[in-house]
Every structure is written in structure tokens, then in C-alpha cells.
Design brief:
The protein has about 270 residues and is mainly α. It is built from twelve helices and no strands. Pfam families: BPD_transp_1.
């Protein structure tokens, strides 16, 4: 066997090992969710969907899911408005402090979520807003806004600048260029960014643990509180439903909006 074949075999073996390592926990969760026994165990001893029924009818999960929808819709929409404005500002203009602004916009991707959550906990305490919807929405908005900004910025970068110049030469005002030319072309990026933000907000746990209370806890926090008291596969069933739903949403969104192009994963 030649050195080139050995190198190729080693590379693909490493790829398979990494993919297996990444997907194995998901497979374990999916399999334990149908375990008929009342104890989390792997491998499952049979197949039963009783834990899915319990997950869907458990009052704390129902309340937490409603809270999550409220927080997700508000945080994602605010992140879309603010993130799109910042993306347009950074892309369109060169000004002093632009690099600092970009660093601040991308910083939630680098700062650990528990640090941000603890910071918002202290901030909420200072303004008497701890564990209320306002502080939770603000925390989630900050966490997901970089993804919206990234998606909108990439969409702006793919627009042919000659279109705006041609419209301006034909007498279109800057407002009409923005609303009639640029905005329709950037809408797929905005929609994709909002969807990614919504998925991340709905499944956010670390920061939510600091800023939610018993009345405002989101679904991941409710799952954490449940598993502290019970050891049955109900949480696995909830996790399985989240995994399947998120995967379907992202697949449909990729087919509809081209998320690979929006996020600059595929430039063709």
C-alpha cells in the first residue's frame, strides 16, 4: 500500500471517528427515549412510547415550552432588527471604531454562556428585573444576535453593488434603493438568521439557568430540574423531540432559504 493511500485511509478513518463521536450521544438519547423501564438505561430493553406521552402531558414541561416560545419569538425578532441594522452599518460604512464595534458584536460567540448569564443576573438584580421575561429576552437576544448579524452581513456581501448604482443613476433615492433593491435581496439571509436565532434561543440552557425563575423557566431549564429529581426516560423523550424537530426545521429552511449560502458555508 502506497503512502498516499495510507494517508487517505488515515484521514477518512479520523473523519469517521469524529462523526461517530459527535453523533453517538444523539443516538443514545434517541434509543433510551423508547426504553420501557422506569430507569434510564442503555441499551434499551424494549420499545415503548409511554415517556413521550408523559413528556407531552407533564405540566412543568408544557408551561416551560410556552415560556420558551414567548422568549424565543421576542428575542429572535429583536435580534433580527438590531442585528440587521448593525450588519448594514458595518458593511456599508467605514468609520473610526468599526473594528471595536465588530469585536463587540462577535464577542458573545467567544464569551462563555455561563459568564454572560451570571452578568445578566447581576444586571437584573441592579435594576430589579431578575428572573423576569425582560431580562431573559435581553440575555437571549445578546446570545443569538451574532448569528443574525453574520447571516445578514453575508447576504449583503453577495449583492452586486452595480444594482444599487444603476438604481441611483436612474434617480432612485437611497431609501428606495434600500427598500426596493437591497432589502428584497437580503430577505433570505434575514429569514435564515431569524430561524437559526430561534432554534438557538429555544434550546439555550446555560445562560437561562441564571436568569429564569420557577414561573419563567424555559424548557431546557425545566428538563434540568426534572432530571435532578427523577431518573426515568422522560427527559430523553423531550430531548428526542427537540432533536427531531430542530433537524427537520433546519433541513426545510436550508432547502427554502439556502442556509449554506447564507452562512457562507457554500459560496457557489
Amino acid at each position: 500500500m502506497t503512502f498516499a493511500r495510507l494517508r487517505s485511509l488515515g484521514f477518512w478513518s479520523l473523519v469517521v471517528a469524529i462523526l461517530t463521536y459527535m453523533t453517538l450521544p444523539t443516538l443514545v438519547v434517541l434509543m433510551t427515549s423508547v426504553n420501557p423501564t422506569e430507569i434510564l438505561a442503555f441499551p434499551p430493553e424494549g420499545v415503548s412510547f409511554q415517556w413521550y406521552e408523559k413528556a407531552l402531558t407533564y405540566p412543568d414541561f408544557q408551561r416551560a415550552f410556552k415560556n420558551g416560545l414567548i422568549v424565543t419569538s421576542l428575542a429572535s425578532t429583536l435580534a433580527l432588527i438590531v442585528g440587521s441594522a448593525f450588519a448594514w452599518l458595518v458593511y456599508r460604512y467605514s468609520f473610526r471604531g468599526r473594528g471595536v464595534l465588530e469585536a463587540v458584536l462577535w464577542s458573545p460567540l467567544i464569551i462563555p454562556h455561563f459568564t454572560l448569564g451570571f452578568g445578566f443576573l447581576l444586571l437584573g438584580g441592579a435594576f430589579k428585573l431578575q428572573q423576569g421575561y425582560g431580562m431573559i429576552v435581553l440575555a437571549h437576544m445578546v446570545l443569538v444576535m451574532p448569528f443574525v448579524t453574520r447571516a445578514v452581513y453575508v447576504s449583503l456581501a453577495t449583492i452586486d453593488p452595480n444594482l444599487a448604482r444603476a438604481a441611483a443613476n436612474l434617480g432612485a433615492s437611497p431609501f428606495h434603493v434600500l427598500t426596493r433593491i437591497e432589502l428584497p435581496l437580503v430577505l433570505p439571509g434575514m429569514a435564515g438568521g431569524w430561524l437559526i436565532a430561534a432554534v438557538l434561543s429555544l434550546t439555550e440552557f446555560t445562560a437561562s439557568l441564571y436568569v429564569t425563575g420557577s414561573r419563567t423557566q424555559t424548557l431546557p431549564v425545566a428538563m434540568y430540574n426534572y432530571i435532578r429529581e427523577y431518573a426515568d426516560p422522560t427527559v430523553s423523550a423531550v430531548s428526542a423531540m427537540l432533536i427531531i424537530t430542530t433537524t427537520l426545521i433546519m433541513f426545510i429552511a436550508d432547502r427554502a432559504f439556502g442556509l449554506r449560502r447564507v452562512l457562507a458555508i457554500d459560496t457557489h
